UniProtKB/TrEMBL annotation:
<dbReference type="GO" id="GO:0062122">
    <property type="term" value="F:histone H3K37 methyltransferase activity"/>
</dbReference>
<protein>
    <submittedName>
        <fullName>SET domain-containing protein</fullName>
    </submittedName>
</protein>
<dbReference type="InterPro" id="IPR009207">
    <property type="entry name" value="SET7_MeTrfase"/>
</dbReference>
<dbReference type="Pfam" id="PF00856">
    <property type="entry name" value="SET"/>
</dbReference>
<dbReference type="InterPro" id="IPR046341">
    <property type="entry name" value="SET_dom_sf"/>
</dbReference>
<feature type="domain" description="SET">
    <location>
        <begin position="1"/>
        <end position="111"/>
    </location>
</feature>
<dbReference type="InterPro" id="IPR001214">
    <property type="entry name" value="SET_dom"/>
</dbReference>
Length: 130
């Protein structure tokens, strides 16, 4: 249902994104990314690495490393997908927020809510266009 390809919006060495292989209907669960959770107090060690940019808040007391395609979705303030934490399955579940045509890149809002436009930890030159 999804695949990894080069993204036009990512810059630098790792210019990957997640793309729809076929049409994905609004509301469809299209990916369940397994997580490796760890206590928040251990995050100080992760912050010293490149991995810090790929971690998700995972409840009040934990942070999680996403596996699968979970850490390769790019950010947009106008996303076509959203995610929910699934503590029972230890996954982050990704759903289509709108119909996603085949070949389109799939974007999430890194703030966790589709309409949250709070500034992020990185400079986002695409806030108005994506």
């Amino acid at each position: 249902m999804i695949e990894i390809k080069s993204s036009k919006i990512s810059d630098g060495e790792f210019n990957r994104g997640v793309f729809a292989m076929g049409p994905i209907s609004k509301g469809t669960l299209f990916h369940e990314a397994p997580v490796i959770p760890y206590p928040n107090e251990q995050h100080v060690h992760i912050e010293q690495t490149l991995l810090a940019d790929y971690m998700f808040s995972y409840g009040a007391n934990h942070t999680a490393l996403l596996l699968g395609y979970g850490m390769l979705f790019n950010h947009s303030y106008k996303p076509n997908a959203y995610y929910e934490l699934n503590f029972d399955n230890h996954t982050v579940d990704f759903y289509a927020y709108a119909d996603i045509p085949a070949g389109d890149e799939i974007f999430i809002n890194y703030n966790g809510e589709v309409d949250n436009e709070d500034e992020l930890w990185f400079e986002d030159n695409n806030k108005e266009t994506l």
